[in-house]
């Protein structure tokens, strides 16, 4: 295929010809008549005039050649269930779900809100919506009622698909009461609620509104529901992401551009091949779950593992830090996608677990969702003996912006860097004051993307074009460019490094410091398992850095003398590596850092606690006691 630099060059210099080729990776009912319409920047419309269907490309087109091959593998260490669906079984289940939604009044363009745990029915519902041209909106299972209500109001779904409960770490969380309260709070009332009953929590059904999935499925056991062919520019789904204001932003995705982007990424980035198995440990409440649990692997003809549970618990509900590696062995996983936080959790387990299983099928482990620190990358790389490929993207992007495209040309990863710009993405480092491009190696600026954006990128903010333009395209002076709101640098080889959010930058006495740089320094200490650094308001310096560290060993989290000694070592390390200005005002030791259930650090909540402010919505927090510990440490 030639070098990646040639491949990339063609993707940005002759974008229409390049993406016309990539469009051949999916099935079209009607071929596009125009590859790109960029006549109304910053909006980009891809594959105009073409008609296709995401569900057809993910399921139906594989039936003739691999109908009996595994498509969806469900593993729940919460309920001890393990079940594989072949493509033809998945096809049947999706049609039953589609017929159920149609019976409840759902038609093309209607919204369906999905509020589900990680169970097969959630994937059936997503694919069923895609099949009939309904717009699906997945909200993270267990989200608080007020947050859920705001999304119901904004999306105005005709139907909500939910379940009695989810479970995490053996703790059942009833969803139905949260959903009932959300509907009560919302000005918009859905016509119907379709419920999976797992037998985990009792449910009170509302007569005329609530329907059991099992009853409708039984009615439609043999119903055939053909795919609705949609314009490439038709909306496939919306996914809410938090913004700087209280109102969540509905990231809106198209159909044709998204299908092509995912098909291309499975080939060029993930090197995934039909008949193999893909394992993403994410959740369908996040964009990674849409792109790389459900649509991407299935479009590529791969089996995809859908996992419910912790990375440290076995199918027998007993502690097992090797559960993921046992699944890699059992299902011959070739491509795995997880998050740095998950790896740091596994880092605390017995290192012998990495050598216990046959991982010879695994070609690469991809990590994303937050910056990957060098010590964690090195530990997992040495333990697995396969390439560890960081990648950087956002809900808005839909697929990786920065990574390594080993499916095009094998290139080395650099520890600490997510990689180089992927084909189609015109990524620049810009001066935040002037908007000028910074081309000198290691010059620090805002990571921005020049339009037109490639296929798969968000179309707009749901029902709010002006917010799309104002939020994303208006923050860099004198330039209409998409701001990622991340600081970054680029080295002499073109590899990018992400240094933290522009809105999380610590300004210490006029010195601007990225939280990532300080965390990277601290995490290199031999007794640091995890670290979070936040900027805390300070009357003298404007802000100071505050570090919260989970020590690997010893008594620093409970013994004052041990804590003082370790704090001194860490501060000296930061001073030596980054200078005295970057040294944290305090290093505090905790047994756990507050995170969401998907493993993202709740930095803003930590910062709010430190500043004696309300930490806001904490419904996705995994362990509330972790935040309580910080509260006690910083109490005045």
TrEMBL record:
The keyword Ligase applies. This is Propionate--CoA ligase. Its EC number is 6.2.1.17. InterPro entries: ACAS_N (IPR032387), AMP-bd_C (IPR025110), AMP-bd_C_sf (IPR045851), AMP-dep_synth/lig_dom (IPR000873), ANL_N_sf (IPR042099), Propion_PrpE (IPR012694). It is an enzyme of class 6 (ligase). Residues 60-453 form the AMP-dependent synthetase/ligase domain. Signal peptide: none annotated. Transmembrane segments: none annotated. Belongs to the ATP-dependent AMP-binding enzyme family. GO terms for molecular function: propionate-CoA ligase activity. It comes from Variovorax rhizosphaerae. Coiled coil: none annotated. Residues 4-58 form the Acetyl-coenzyme A synthetase N-terminal domain.
